């Protein structure tokens, strides 16, 4: 299975509850080897950055193993609303 933005989105939605927003950017010019992901979910409430990223990385364990680079940023809905005013 090749890694695509849709595969990443589907896996995140299935694994992390209460997702408000997901932004997936293929940073490898379309070859599917490098992705940056922003996940907004209140599941992250009370968790630090490391704990949040571990949730995302755990959900995408198989996909992350197949690609060259992966970055994620995780926000609660309250944090996200402050960023996108």
TrEMBL record:
InterPro entries to which the protein is assigned, alphabetical: BOL2, BolA, BolA-like_sf
GO molecular function, one term: 2 iron, 2 sulfur cluster binding
GO CC terms: cytosol; nucleus
Pfam families: BolA (PF01722)
One GO BP: intracellular iron ion homeostasis
Family, similarity comment: Belongs to the BolA/IbaG family.
Name by which UniProt lists this protein: KLTH0G01540p
Organism: Lachancea thermotolerans (strain ATCC 56472 / CBS 6340 / NRRL Y-8284)
